[in-house]
Task: structure prediction
Amino acid sequence: MKEEIVELIGLDKRKFEVYKIDEELEKERMVKIIYVKIRSKKYRCPKCNKFTSSVHDVLKPVKIKYLDIAGHSSVIYLSKRRFICHECNIKFTETTNLHEKNHTLSNKLKIKIRKDLLNKSMTIYEIARQNNVSEYTVRKELKIIMKDHSRSIKALPKIISFDEFKADTSYGKYAFIVNDPIHKCTLDILPNRKKEYLNNYFTKITNRNSVEYVIGDMYEPYLLVTKVMFSKAKYVADRFHYERYVMKALDSIRIRLQDEYGEKTKEYKLLKKRYNANLIRVYYNRVDNWYSYIKIYRNGHMTEIMKIDLLHQILNISEELKRGYELKELFLDIVNHSNYENAEKDLLAWIELCNESQISEIIEAAKTINNWLEHIVNSFIDKRLSNGYTEGVNKKNKRYKKTWIWI
Result:
């Protein structure tokens, strides 16, 4: 029985001896209690470097949480001896690779927890329960991993991307993520997105001058960090974010109009409905069957109407909404069909049309586009210069953020 247990838990028979095995019920789980002692007969003195076999005393067994054995949790009680060196008259405790000094988790259990942390489908709670440890212990291991990972980043690829996501870190409510969007991998996650923190972090990177492009949203500190830390790189405004400014302007027109008409009007109901709001956001040239029928509730019964007809009904409510929609479509045409050589000219012409529209929401969006024009034009250099991968990673991070703890 003892030899089978030694085989199951993977102890080295040459170094350890199992002299007793018990079982007990702990938190509705059966736990194997394994009593182990070290076989070595002599140790080298840490001071004079001479061997001694003189045992001074035996310490109280150390409790170490270990891996599961055939579905049962296991705990090792390791007996350690203190030796005395008669040459220099010092006492020292024998050492082992079973666990780290002053740690109650075995090294193998730590490795198992860290492997589980790589599994994105597992929560902190599930990992803790599976390994019979506390959630605090799992978070502590995650914190150690993150520190080690941060220190391990020495070089960056030619193209990197910046973004943030809500994480409620010890520095604030946003965490910072830096990715390699071309090879689709996360390079690091930091607990702070502030300019000073990022400058200090990137100062330690050895190949900053080899970075050619930095992709980010229209958040000014990221641009300033790029100018200071990556002087040879071009900052690229992410397409998703600058498109969103124009979409938001159109949405603001819709919301203003529905409030002006009032809740009891048919215009309000037409503008308020979520499906209709999404319909005016859809790019007309994007793959979408505008001539398919949809069912809507009208005059007390369900009726069918084509998407294109419903769109026209919405736009006919107001000339401002119709003009805002046309300018949105024109902007998306430029984004999808212009090239790097003519993008600036096309965007400047669009900005002029926006100013002529005299629609305050559209004029404000055009002002933002104009302020970031150089960096928006950079996104036309190569269609791969996008934060698409980063946005995908952030969606996953939002699902798991409650299970993470930040440094």
Summary: The longest helix spans residues 239-261.
